[in-house]
Batch of 2 targets.
Target 1
Amino acid sequence: MIVDLSDEEARAALPLKWGAVEPGVLPAWVAEMDYALAPAVAEAVAGAVRRGLAGYPPFGDAGVGAAFAGFARRHWGWSPPEDASVVVGDVIAGIRLVLETICPPGPVVVPLPCYPPFRDVVALAGREMVPIDLDPDATDAALDLERVEAAFRGGARTLLLCNPHNPLGRVPSRTELQALAELARRYDARVVADEIHGPLVLPGPHGTDGPVFTPYLDVDERAVLVTSHSKTFNTAGLHTAQVVCLDPADLARLRGVLLPQNHAYSPLGMIAARVAWSDCDDWHAALVRRLGEQRDLLAELVASHLPDARTRPLEATYLAWLDLRAYGSDDPAAAALAHGVKVAPGSDYQPGLPGHVRVNIATSPDRLEAVVTRLAKALAG
Ligand SMILES: Cc1ncc(COP(=O)(O)O)c(C=O)c1O
């Protein structure tokens, strides 16, 4: 059910990921998958274009909120209201809208390492950032709640949570999220939860049971969720994401913003979102199985070609975090590029952090093997 794209097909489908590298170089950097679209999504979007749909998007959410609520119910046993979504152009635009519109004034806590635009969007929203280092090499790498509390005590009133975590691939437990919620309640702080990777919780090694995803809003009703079908269904270019907010007054404020503050979403993306959330459960199940196999293959390849690498359990996402400091290169991503593979440098996620890379495993087994062997060759000198 998951169809691997050939190099030529991938180059046509994913112009950023594949267009950023010379022919012959393998792109294992940005979070896009070298797989064909889910047929139902492709059909729905192609059908809409054939019908001439290229006009402005409609008022309202065109059923995207109800479709997401159905997905959340079926997959996570969580039932958000169907009318609690505001459509936005992408997740980062949604975070910016939330920061500008409904988050309390004051600095914003950002756990590091983080998806780099988290840092940019805090600055764009005119907020001060309070970074909190997670230990990217700890097996657990949990949020340090004492440091979060210190930040709240110092005046911060918003925290950007990435659940599950990119780039660490970690799924926080319900208990851990409940403890964060309790802290946020005590300080009247607001958590903005980016859960774009929520549907990408993987099975455990070799098909065993994996961790359980907890939607943060299920433990903290005052939080705001920003999500999209786009990482799971490979549709980032269709520009549709959603903010989910349970407080009616805040929802009204989000819906009442001036058009130029939130107008960049696409009617084609809204169709893709509705179909992805509603009609693609079989494809989604095949995807997470396939990504689980890729993750298991990565573990074997790393054990045989990069035995001194330190890895983290990849519980979610298709983005693996490797600590390669044992090989003595401060910038293994630059070394890898010279040997035909583009991976993301760890310092993009935690400024100043040497010797780490993030590797995108959502490709074919053959390409993944080439990625790891080229990386190993690069580090061998
Ligand atoms: C945690 C996280 N948030 C947001 C995004 C990007 O989402 P969007 O393109 O909808 O802004 C990514 C992309 O990889 C991501 O990993």
Target 2
Amino acid sequence: MDALLAVRARGVTKCFGEVVALDGVDLAVARGRIHGLVGPNGAGKTTLLGLLLGLAAADRGSLEILGTPVGRTPAAPEGVAGFVDGPGLYPSLTARQNLAALAALRGRAADRAADRAGVADALDQVGLVDVADDRVGGFSLGMRQRLGLAAALLSRPRLLVLDEPANGLDPAGKRHVHGVLHRLAAQGTAVVLSSHRMDDLEALCSEVTILATGRVAFSGPLRELAAGDRELDYRLLTSDPAAARRTAAGTPGVRLLDPDPAGPPPDAERLVLRARVPALDVLVSRLVGDGVAVRELAPVVSPLEAAFLALTEQQQRPQPEGARR
Ligand SMILES: Nc1ncnc2c1ncn2[C@@H]1O[C@H](COP(=O)(O)OP(=O)(O)O)[C@@H](O)[C@H]1O
Ligand SMILES: [Mg+2]
């Protein structure tokens, strides 16, 4: 069974002085899966990904990468590629030169033609062919992220580790990155990537681990996270807001909320309600029975985002003043 796992972490703990960045983390990622690591800033995502890349070692617990136990001295495990905190690139070289330099560093310079083809293919996969001969110093964050992914592809990893790869990506960039990751997964590569936003991961991952202050708050399939009859906040637009407000106030299980002070400017026409689905059903039938047309009824945040917020909101770690990253 474990032979099929690309990552197996048990009770992994990592401290920086007083800060417990990871606290007894368990993680299992099968080969061929795209696994999302999600959590607020400071949750421990970068720290965990750094352990997978061998940039640091855990203080306690055990970690197996591609079936091989990782020791207590930091060392890059065989078959793993990726980056944390942005890819390391030479700004004065072009995209193509950066990849060629990496390919040469990996010791296959004997086969220049194969390297050139590999570089061209990697640039094509991430959609950077048009800017291949431009200097990286002028690249946007999204372009650097894509070039970092291309660099990781050169080594044909069996485990790919990406820290916040969606940062700075425009829609076209996102399409390329998603395409690359789905293709890799289909070929059996495991991908572990992080984001501080649940919606980044919804289109990409079938399973996620939610970290909150260094602990696993949830790990499993996305559909399990979205399931469950939770109270959610909904926006309701009807043909008669005053009548809808009265009916909502009189419907058991439905609470009218004040507009979120951090949300978009309040809209007198739209009510914000908190309810479970059965109570919402009652409200809608009552409104329709009263001749009030329901024009829009939608959750304020997606059920997945709501589950994520509920699991992470209670336990935010205060960030020390002037803290890194
Ligand atoms: N090298 C480090 N030195 C000191 N503290 C660190 C270091 N790396 C991470 N931390 C602390 O560990 C916690 C987790 O950080 P990090 O893994 O970067 O979180 P995330 O990537 O989820 O935002 C934070 O409180 C952070 O300040
Ligand atoms: Mg981070």
